[in-house]
Write a structure and sequence with these properties.
The chain has 149 residues and is of the alpha+beta class. Helix content is 20%, strand content 43%. It starts with 6 loop residues before the first helix and ends with a strand.
Amino acid sequence: MNEKLNKDQIRELLPHREPMLLVDELINIKKLFSATAIVNVKKDSFFVQGHFPGQPVMPGVLIVEAFGQAAAALTAAGIDKTEYKDKLVFLMSVEKARFRSPVIPDCKLELNIEAIRSHGKVWKYKGEAFVDGKKMADAMWSATIVDRK
């Protein structure tokens, strides 16, 4: 398995497309255990124009969405391709999400994610988001693998 995935490789694993494909790269991959996702938060990101114009901030729900995308890519890259064929990873719950500092464009948001456990098609994860080494957010969430309809 690659120790990193670029955006094209992530696009092959996830159904998300621009502008909702938030994760640009997945690095430091430990198969089915952990990875670091890179999200390049740019001044021309789709949410900047309408989310606090003049003082843009990445919405917290999009940080949680990026956590979920990173976890889905980590899981999809690690499991057998036949097990993931025609499947989607859906977010089931978000717990203990905390937003400590605003994420302001232009920055590189690093999401350190970890799979805590899996039970059948249900996975539980935790993650921390950083900009320049400063913790911006953290959360725990659950997701499930479902049939694509």
